[in-house]
């Protein structure tokens, strides 16, 4: 009995020490004291074993001892197996900053750090712009007109965007821009997502491109000249990075520049001779100034001893002799302006280099530092805005569309995708807003930018697919009345650009995060590069303590022991504790995968992707809870929180399960499963009751629907029809209409109305004649049914309307 007691006390004591990462001295005290107690009490065997364990802990854990024999050996082994980090990778790793993503990598996230990013909201100017200028711009758009009739935005819209400085949101006021916060920029793009061409046209100049690069790295002369002209639209920028052989692997771009001397107007000018071919460059067909990335060489050593000067960025005016620009690509589903740019030996002066000579060779660093912010905002905001509109349109359509004598919103087969759309949109709103808020606090979130770009554009894909399914024939028939189909067909663009989602998920989220966000890995690699065994010792054994701590936290929290304190209300607290539990499991599993696979983990992309999926879902769930905690709640929002949080945690556990099943070491996989999920999986898909509640709310004139549709163009105040405003108007009178539908349908079923009264208008007239409906109600229903029918109507065209070459029209029935 004494032996068992000592074993239990030792296990409990060591688990407590490990959970708190109290260090080797504390572990030594536990094992040493219990060993002495065992010897004194006559339990010789367990006493000796505990003292041996104490000796091992002292030899391996006490710095003065281990540095003499253990650390040098471990260091030599580490240098052999550690992954090689290229200069390109190192630049990417050092770009940006680490914030909440780093906390999740520790396995013991400190929620106070997340709440330290307080939200000051929008300024009065930002709110006014969002409410007025964005509404005006949105009101000028019709998807069919833009995509099929003109393949461009209308001229009056271009003029308005320039006049109101939409292209200068990130440019400070002193240069004539709007100087908006990241939150305001995001909300503007969400509202403009009513039309994907409009959103892209405004978003790209405010994202990665000449404006941001000039702000951060440009010379004062470059800033003074270009920034005011970019802000008011006198200059339209584009940025040429990708090409035929350099897409996701942008660092392998084959475009070159050579430092040369040229005679111009009788003077010798030092400049660059550029040869390049770029593709998929947004705004290139109309750009007046081209940002260009290329590999610079100085073969004649005109600038110094180095011949290969590295990736460099320059600004090339459109009128540069030899620049081939103006042709267009045809992006799927959307006519946003995108095209190729070519140059063969064109010459530009040296002062076109962004930042001047001192920034030669710094191009890749400049790009990745800017991308960490821009990628957090443009496409994630567009996806979130698309979700807002899709939820609004689809909820409205599902309520007014009647089949089998009831709105299709009452059918559970429709309620399931409708609730899923609402949950994904709710998560996206929280994630993009809270991440933008961290940017406003000075963060440059490199890993979160990859998470948001890939996850939210995938959400957009799922939301639009669900919206198309619910709309049915209304959405698959294109024409001016179709507000959904063109945006749906354009969705692959968002999936592909700014780092294709396949690459981002498989290589970037965990591949970059494992080194960038981990508390110790970057220090260990730096110690290896510096050949500093002392620095390695500190980092490695700190890392070892973290691994043991995460193992103890994952196991004990998985068993329901020692719940972590979390600063949330009773609704959100259980989810926060689960995030903390799974964070410990994630950190432990990440370390186990890196230790067992070493540099091979780079090639095991499916494993890396699943680790990235765990991190992504924990990150999104964290921001969801912060948004809940800081926001004003509305009716039924609690149901949506439960649905959304359960969905993310279920996805995280699914990624864990797939990872454990596929680790090369089956023993390691089984061990990790038992530690991380000792009681099995806890989370399943959200309950049907939540689905019904949410679907009902988003398809009615409810507070939850209004919350989800905040910052959309929902007013009937523009020259173009606004289907969202029309749906909202119909839902505002839905309760009165449903009561009349029930009364009339019941009378028809009982034979009180003629059997041949099959159309709603016929039944209504018969009900009036029999005194079942008042004239006032009849007038209301006639007007409503006319509006409903108009909203359900689809377009038709002349037989040969879609044939570009009329000579090729087949007349199957010539008569």
TrEMBL record:
It is an enzyme of class 1 (oxidoreductase). Signal peptide: none annotated. The keyword Nucleotide-binding does not apply. The chain crosses the membrane at residues 36-65. Residues 361-501 form the Acyl-CoA dehydrogenase/oxidase C-terminal domain. Keywords: FAD, Flavoprotein, Membrane, Oxidoreductase, Transmembrane, Transmembrane helix. It catalyses: a medium-chain 2,3-saturated fatty acyl-CoA + oxidized [electron-transfer flavoprotein] + H(+) = a medium-chain (2E)-enoyl-CoA + reduced [electron-transfer flavoprotein]; a long-chain 2,3-saturated fatty acyl-CoA + oxidized [electron-transfer flavoprotein] + H(+) = a long-chain (2E)-enoyl-CoA + reduced [electron-transfer flavoprotein]. Its cofactor is FAD. Pathway: Lipid metabolism; fatty acid beta-oxidation. InterPro entries: Acyl-CoA_dehydrogenase, Acyl-CoA_Oxase/DH_mid-dom, Acyl-CoA_Oxase/DH_mid-dom_sf, AcylCo_DH-like_C, AcylCo_DH/oxidase_C, AcylCoA_DH/ox_N, AcylCoA_DH/ox_N_sf, AcylCoA_DH/oxidase_NM_dom_sf. Residues 238-335 form the Acyl-CoA oxidase/dehydrogenase middle domain. It holds the Pfam family Acyl-CoA_dh_1. The keyword Metal-binding does not apply. Residues 515-797 form the Acyl-CoA dehydrogenase C-terminal bacterial-type domain. This is Acyl-coenzyme A dehydrogenase. The lineage of its organism: Bacteria, Pseudomonadati, Pseudomonadota, Gammaproteobacteria, Oceanospirillales.
């Amino acid at each position: 009995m004494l032996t068992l007691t000592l074993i239990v006390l030792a296990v409990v004591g060591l688990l407590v020490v490990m959970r708190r990462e109290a260090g080797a001295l504390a572990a030594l005290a536990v094992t040493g004291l219990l060993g002495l107690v065992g010897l004194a009490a006559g339990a010789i065997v367990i006493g000796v074993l505990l003292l041996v364990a104490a000796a091992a802990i002292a030899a391996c854990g006490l710095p003065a001892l281990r540095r003499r024999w253990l650390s040098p050996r471990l260091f030599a082994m580490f240098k052999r197996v550690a992954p090689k980090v290229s200069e390109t990778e190192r630049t990417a790793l050092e770009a940006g900053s680490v914030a909440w993503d780093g906390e999740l990598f520790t396995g013991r996230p400190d929620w106070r750090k997340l709440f330290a990013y307080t939200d000051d909201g929008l300024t009065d100017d930002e709110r006014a712009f969002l409410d007025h200028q964005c509404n005006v711009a949105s009101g000028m758009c019709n998807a069919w007109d833009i995509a099929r009739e003109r393949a461009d935005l209308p001229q009056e819209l271009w003029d308005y965007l320039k006049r109101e400085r939409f292209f200068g949101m990130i440019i400070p006021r002193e240069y004539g821009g709007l100087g908006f916060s990241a939150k305001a920029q995001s909300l503007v793009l969400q509202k403009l997502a009513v039309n994907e061409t409009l959103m892209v046209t405004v978003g790209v100049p405010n994202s990665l491109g000449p404006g941001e690069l000039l702000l951060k790295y440009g010379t004062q002369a470059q800033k003074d000249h270009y920034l005011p002209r970019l802000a008011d639209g006198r200059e339209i920028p584009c940025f040429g990075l990708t090409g035929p052989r350099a897409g996701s692997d942008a660092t392998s771009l084959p475009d070159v520049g050579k430092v040369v001397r040229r005679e111009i107007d009788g003077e010798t000018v030092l400049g660059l001779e550029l040869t390049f071919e770029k593709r998929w460059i947004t705004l290139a067909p109309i750009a007046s100034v081209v940002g260009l990335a290329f590999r610079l060489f100085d073969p004649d050593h005109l600038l110094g001893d180095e011949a290969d000067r590295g990736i460099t960025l320059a600004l090339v005016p459109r009128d540069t002799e030899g620049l081939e620009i103006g042709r267009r690509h045809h992006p799927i589903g959307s006519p946003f302006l995108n095209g190729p740019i070519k140059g063969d030996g064109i010459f530009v002066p040296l002062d076109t280099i962004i930042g001047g000579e001192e920034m030669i060779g710094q191009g890749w660093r400049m790009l990745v530092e800017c991308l960490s912010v821009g990628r957090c905002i443009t496409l994630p905001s567009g996806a979130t805005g698309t979700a807002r509109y899709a939820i609004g349109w689809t909820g409205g359509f599902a309520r007014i569309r009647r089949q089998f004598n009831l709105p299709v919103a009452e059918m559970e087969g429709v309620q399931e995708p409708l609730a899923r759309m609402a949950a994904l949109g709710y998560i996206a709103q929280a994630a993009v807003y809270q991440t933008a808020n961290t940017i406003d606090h000075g963060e440059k979130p490199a890993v979160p930018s990859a998470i948001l770009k890939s996850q939210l554009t995938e959400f957009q894909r799922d939301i639009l697919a669900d919206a198309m399914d619910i709309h049915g024939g209304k959405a698959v028939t294109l024409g001016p009345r179709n507000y959904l189909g063109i945006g749906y067909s354009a969705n692959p663009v968002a999936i592909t650009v700014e780092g294709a989602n396949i690459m981002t998920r498989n290589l970037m989220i965990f591949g970059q995060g494992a080194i960038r966000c981990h508390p110790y890995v970057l220090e260990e690699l730096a110690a290896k590069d510096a050949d500093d065994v002392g620095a390695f010792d500190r980092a490695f054994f700190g890392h070892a303590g973290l691994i043991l701590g995460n193992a103890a936290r994952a196991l004990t929290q998985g068993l329901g022991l020692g719940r972590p304190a979390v600063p949330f209300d009773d609704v959100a607290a259980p989810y926060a504790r689960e995030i903390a539990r799974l964070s410990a499991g994630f950190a432990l599993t990440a370390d186990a995968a890196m230790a067992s696979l070493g540099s091979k983990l780079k090639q095991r992309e499916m494993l890396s992707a699943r680790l990235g999926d765990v991190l992504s879902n924990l990150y999104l769930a964290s921001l969801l809870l912060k948004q809940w905690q800081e926001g004003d709640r509305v009716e039924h929002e609690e149901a949506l929180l439960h649905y959304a949080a359960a969905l993310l945690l279920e996805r995280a556990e699914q990624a864990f399960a797939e990872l454990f099943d596929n680790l090369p070491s089956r023993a390691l996989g089984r061990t990790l499963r038992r530690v991380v999920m000792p009681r099995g999986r806890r989370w399943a898909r959200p309950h049907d009751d939540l689905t019904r509640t949410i679907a009902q709310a988003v398809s009615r004139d409810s507070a939850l629907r209004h919350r989800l549709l905040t910052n959309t163009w929902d007013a009937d105040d523009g020259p173009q029809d606004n289907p969202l405003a029309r749906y909202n108007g119909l839902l505002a009178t839905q309760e009165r209409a449903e009561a009349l539908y029930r009364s009339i349908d019941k009378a028809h079923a009982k034979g009180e109305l003629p059997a041949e009264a099959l159309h709603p208008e016929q039944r209504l007239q018969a009900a009036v004649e029999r005194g079942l409906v008042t004239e006032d109600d009849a007038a209301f229903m006639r007007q409503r049914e006319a509006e409903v029918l108009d909203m359900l109507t689809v377009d038709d065209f002349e037989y040969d309307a879609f044939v570009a070459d009329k000579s090729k029209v087949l007349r199957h029935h010539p008569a």
